[in-house]
Design brief:
Layout (H helix, E strand, L loop, with lengths): L4 H13 L2 H8 L3 H15 L4 E3 L4 E3 L1 H28 L4 E6 L4 H15 L4 E6 L2 H10 L4 E6 L6 E15 L1 H5 L18 E4 L4 H10 L8 E5 L2 H9 L5 E4 H10 L4 E4 L6 E9 L7 H21 L1
Parallel strand pairs: 3-4, 3-5, 7-8
Antiparallel strand pairs: 1-2, 5-11, 6-9, 6-10, 6-11
Length: 307
């Protein structure tokens, strides 16, 4: 690139003022100095940018095209300069990924906690399934991801945050037909029950199948719901049973009063919610702060479910 931001600024000023003298005043330079820079820009771009008339200056076709690009470049430069000022002043931005079975329940409290610690922090959220979030992490599109561990791979660093136990959810009539006492209830007891799970691709579905000792080929498995909210409404109407994370249990029970919950006997099945980042990421303290906020919010939610 043989042209400079200064040349583009001078060019934009002439295009807007339609006069070299006024443009020089706006740029706080002498008119000869401005003219020299415009001439150099024209030589670099290989064409004349202005049509000089007796009382006016018009853009040539090349000038009109260049002006559009110049405005974009100068606008980006201003934003980059502001970012640098913010960063040097201690401001920070974070891009965080989070899986759909955690996001609606954890995010409000986490974002509130982060804002309470640093009101200037800019947070971007990407909600996606585990495989997509790991891909975004590899590509540098996000800084960290909140998901169920383990994520796998030496390229990532995993920080466990809290345990999220699974509860058995269904209508009152369905749960009454489970032939065991709650204290003795085990996930393997559900092998003959009609299970409803999230559509394939959700890690929660894989975890539920694993703890129940079932596979996708079972005729008792219905995997079609796209969210826990949909799943809650289906099982509340008696269409089957499902495993509901503690993290979502209180919120979904309040939204769907017909859905009832049973706790499994010890040892209770659970998933480990954790924070995943690239192993190569430099940690200047933000990882520990983010992890602590998520841990505090998550533990508070699941503790409310257990009380």
């Amino acid at each position: 690139m043989n042209f400079t931001l200064k040349q583009l600024q001078y060019f934009q000023a002439v295009a807007e003022q339609r006069n070299f003298g006024r443009a020089a005043q706006v740029c706080n330079v002498s008119q000869p100095a401005l003219s020299v820079q415009i001439k150099s820009l024209e030589e670099t771009l290989g064409g004349v940018l202005f049509e000089r008339q007796a009382r006016d200056i018009l853009l040539t076709p090349l000038g009109r095209d260049v002006l559009e690009h110049a405005r974009q470049v100068l606008g980006a430069a201003v934003r980059l300069d502001q970012f640098a000022r913010d960063h040097s002043g201690g401001h920070r931005s974070l891009s965080i990924g989070i899986i759909p079975t955690i996001a609606p329940y954890l995010l409000p409290g986490v974002l509130g906690g982060l804002r309470a610690e640093d009101v200037s922090l800019r947070v971007q959220i990407r909600e996606a399934r585990t495989e997509r979030l790991l891909s975004l992490l590899r590509e540098g599109e996000i800084d960290a991801a909140v998901l169920a561990l383990p994520a796998g791979g030496s390229e990532f660093h995993e920080t466990p945050l809290f345990q999220d136990h699974f509860l058995l959810a269904g209508s009152a009539a369905r749960l009454q037909r489970v032939n065991t006492s709650p204290e003795m209830l085990r996930p393997l007891d559900l092998q003959s029950a009609q299970l409803m799970l999230l559509e394939d691709g959700h890690c929660l579905t894989d975890q539920a199948l694993e703890v129940c000792g079932q596979d996708r080929g079972s005729g008792q498995i219905n995997m079609g719901a796209s969210s826990l909210a949909t799943l809650s409404r289906l099982v509340a109407e008696g269409f089957g049973l499902t495993l509901m994370p503690e993290l979502a249990a209180k919120s979904e029970s309040e939204a769907v009063p017909g859905m009832k919950l049973l706790r499994f006997g010890a040892p209770q099945p659970a998933r480990t919610v954790g924070l995943v980042r690239r192993a190569s990421t430099t940690d200047d303290g933000w990882v520990d702060r983010l992890a602590q906020v998520i841990r505090d919010v998550g533990k508070q939610i699941v503790s409310a479910t257990r009380s």
